[in-house]
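Appendix B: complex inputs.
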Amino acid sequence: MGHAAFWTVRRRDNLVGYLLVAPQLLGSALFVLLPLALVGWYSLHEWNVLAGTFEFTGGDNYAKLLADPGVREALAATGLFSLGLVVLNLGLALLLAVLLNQRLRGTTFFRTLFFSPVVVSLVAWTIVWQFLLQADGGLNGLLEVAGVTGPNWLRGEGTAMLSVIIVQVLKNVGLNMVLFLAALQGVPAQLYEAAQLDGAGAWRRFARITLPLISPTVLLTSIITVVGSLQVFAQIAVLTQGGPGTSTTVLVYYLYQQAFQFHHFGYGATLSVLLFAIVAVLTIVQWRMRRRWVFHEA
Amino acid sequence: MRRRVKLLLYGTLLVLCVPFVFPTWWMVTSSLKPIREIFAFPPSLLPGTWDFSAYAKVFELQPFAGQYLNSLYIALVVTAGTMAVAAMAGYAFARIRFPGQNALFVVVLLGLLIPSEVTIVPLFQMFHGLGLTDTHWPLIVVPILGAPSVLATFIMRQFFVSLPGELEEAARVDGLGRFGTFYRVALPLARPALGAVAIFTFLHSWNLYLEPIVYLSTPARFTLPQALTQFVDAYGGPMWNVQLAAASMTALPVLVVFVLAQRQFIEGLAHTGLKG
Amino acid sequence: MIKKSLTGLALAGLLATTACGGSAQPAPAAAKGLRMTIWTSNEAHLKLFGDIAAEYTRAHPEAGPITFDPLPFESYTTTLTTQIAGGNAPDLAWILESAAPDFVSSGALAPLDGKLTEAGDLTPSSTKLWQRDGKLYAYPFSTSPFAVFVNTDLLKKAGQKPPAKGWTWEQAVASAAAVAAKEGKAGLVVRDFDYKNWDNLASLWRGWGAQAWSEDGRTCGFNQPEMVEAMTFLHKAVFTDKALPGPGTTADFFAGEAAMTITQISRASLLKDATFGWDLVPLPTGPKGEYSVIGQAGIGVFAKSPNKDAATDFLAFFSNPANSAKLAAYFPPPRASQLNVETLAKSNPLLKPEQLSEVVIGGIESGVVKPSHTGQAELSQTVRAALDPLWLPGADVKAVLDGVCAKIQPMLGA
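Resulting structure:
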């Protein structure tokens, strides 16, 4: 009697629940939490790879982080990069989605074109842009044909940052465009018709109807885009190597330099903890904002 | 729609699509030019001399065919594995009320926040301890169970949340247990979401760059992004047309598949439930 | 619950292994065979190495298969160190001269004294960088002087005289500028510099007696008058005379796109299928007269390798006089007995005897090694970032160089 009573429907349900999430949880524990803990552990040490020493230094690395001008520069570069990227990406995605949402022939064709960089390999895309952005590369060659002398894109402090941002935006904006397009198509046409009858102009309709109704999508894509922007590495590694000077050395690239180029693995681990903290805070803040920014139907 | 507005729209679209299309165009045409022509001023839109030798060179310099297969089979296995893991976890988080569910979901979501550069050294040590470096195991197991699959779980959960409750009640009435409900009822309905997951996951695995560089040391085991960066040599010259040929071969097939299946591609993405 | 304790166990287990002996790397598993990391994937090089290895394996089958593992040159030291950090160190590795101080002083390499054949034959100048406390830690298998390859066809077309012995930097820049102006090709290219790898500029600034830092490595040399003069000369040559291609412009001498290039003579193999006439001449003389700059590469054995003895034995074989002569085809040897025209000519068919004697042998004997220092990676990157403002048309040379010293002086004190 006791046996059968134990496995109630409730308990069986719970068991299935645990079993179904088990692989993902196990993976998270092994490949996310454990490495994270280890990274935290490394950050408390001075690790000289060549000499093979691993000394406990407690909070020394964190003190170094607070005093390091390189960190401040990296944070500034990261802020600039992420801000530029998010604004440009979301703005362009929205613009493209609006353009493609019109009743025109051939929008599917354009949709394919705008989406195509998403499926091209990241390394291939970056290598191609590296050629195009050389002082004597394809882009300046095209500009020359139009009679304009292009700047040395990757070697000027401002233009290098701009170049990296644009290369990244062009690669991924297609994804956000598609998501916005789907959201736009989910807005009931009657709302627009009613507004038009009331005399609302195109801009007003956009601001009062479209934006609020696609705001859940905007929020989610902005979270994903912000988090993604903090992880951009390959483009900077291939195009500018953090230069000129340190103008494009964003935090994740600074981390790579410290850990893998200068072999300060302990300090690199400390920077990893900082990066993780920033990502976590930004995500939580954005998620909390959803009450304010996202339109909820009554 | 007024004619002028139409023209304006088409014009804008045409201008806007140039930076999206030109790089791919340039990549393919330059791979067919002799090296000197690649940097010629003014740049030629089409090769002046059609030179296919770079493509042959790609296979000579690297075991490129093998590397292609490596990238392909790894991506396929990872995609299949992720779809399974994410569907199961996503369903459970969405539809089963089990104790600790919310806390566990947050724990899983942590994976979304962590850049791979942060965890690569400890992960490498783990796999080295198991003697699995220079194999494909880290490139398969970590994406399926670790951070990259968390987005997939998130998408599946969003989708399953949007399913009406009546479906499950109906299934229960039919005598299906919880697992049966998942497998027989919910999963078949999840095709659009699964499609999106498949696309994301395949692309992510196909493009992995840091991980193969860290784990793999035998050229025969390399994956494509890694192989792409190997076409430069200290004592040789830079081999730009070869590099671009390899890059074209990496990008084009995926592009072609995309063009052919683009409706499913894009509509699968649109239905991820990311609309909120 | 179970998950938590499993995690705890795994974590404890890993920490236990890492805490052992104060080292953070898991002990490498003893594997059969030897692995040597290199930075070339040149077919001819690989074939030569393979042949040498095959001969060794025939005589010593117990050593197992010997593999040569090419790592990308640009990130070679970084990749090697990452392998070591992850517990995946090779048995032997090529080491750049710039990384020599770090590797040699770290204790990571096993001393080679008494293990190499005919070690007395190694010239003192070649081994200086690889020694510490009187012990040799790596075999300097390649000492490659910097020299100038010139495209005689291009020079003739631009109406320029080919360089003669004792030519000066002013003459070099003038010829280069003329070619750039008349033929639209690049004049002089400092190969591998690309406005990023500044240590290659040593091939220029030594002519002014400048140096990156003092002999003892403690004082910054960038803001000294000699360096300021040298850099001012370079800046003018790039931005005013347009004798050198500017930043972001590519020109490959070996593809016929430049009139001259400064590089190491090991690049001579690229001229095998040259479509133009060429010559090899010593570096131009600067205000301080003749000078020579050399790059070096060493092969070291890792002390922690489980195959340390077998690896050292193989290195002794790889570096013995017979193989050294074979390697001389691409890598000028450190052996005094082989630093003569006959040996080098046998295996270096592309270079003429005068070129070999003037450029190669002369260069090696009197050459100064490219800059190197402990903490090289971070130092080098800091200099690079601090020098970036110099590569703009209106740059204030003195101010930029002062900035470089301000940034690196704290690092040099160590």
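The mean pLDDT of chain A is 85.
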